[in-house]
Amino acid sequence: MELFYRKFGNEGDQAVIILHGLFGISDNWVTYGKDLADKGYEVFIPDQRNHGRSEHSDDFNYLALTNDLFDFIDAEEIENPILIGHSMGGKVAMRFAVSYPELVKKLIVVDIAPREYGPRKHHLSIIKTMLAVDLNNVKSRTDVSTFLKKGIADERIRQFILKNLYRKNKNEFEWRINLGAISDNLEKMFDSIQENKAYKGPVLFIKGGNSDYILSADYKDIYTFFPYAEIVTVEGATHWVHADEPDEFQQLTYQFLQQE
Hints:
Order of helices and strands: EEHEHEHEHHHEEHEHEHH
CATH class of the largest domain: Alpha Beta
Low-confidence stretches: none
CATH topology of the largest domain: Rossmann fold
Structural class: alpha/beta
Number of domains: 2
């Protein structure tokens, strides 16, 4: 599986790999990635399979995504990277760290826990709404946005989803995201981490104060897999902590990255 990726910073600096969440793309993290590069890190931001400009596949589960990350690190000859993952990307980063602890220097997990999650209706609604857009009969991104509004009321989420839209040619639009494979395998994205190992390196969990993705009941599982984890709450933030409170997010993560 060949992954498209963006790279910032200088070769030889401490490597950081940033993994986006479901429906996300590498472009979502460019501003943050450039900021880290300016601070002396070599930053890699891949599009995960079935997202962005990376290859599509009918296989879509955490084993496949973790194997993609292993192959990416091997192909790019990245040594001891720091992993940062949001939501689905956080699950991939967690699974990778417990599977290959010797390959990971540090881990930052953004608003996701190791547990299994029940079906989330808003994910299903987003997919249903995107699939319902007749891209053969739209002339602009505004047309698509107007249609999405019928099923996605939140303006910010609509703009987030529209990042997946591109103009195939002068008269045609397409989704970059592989909606079919994601729809068919959506329940697998709520799986728990099932490895019987632990990652004993430094880990920072960042949760949104207005999010229910990390609850106090999850702390036991977090410390089982990550015994040296630190859990920090960003008050007022939703599941998209890095977008809601970018300054605080940057401060927290950079401070953690600098710790010996």
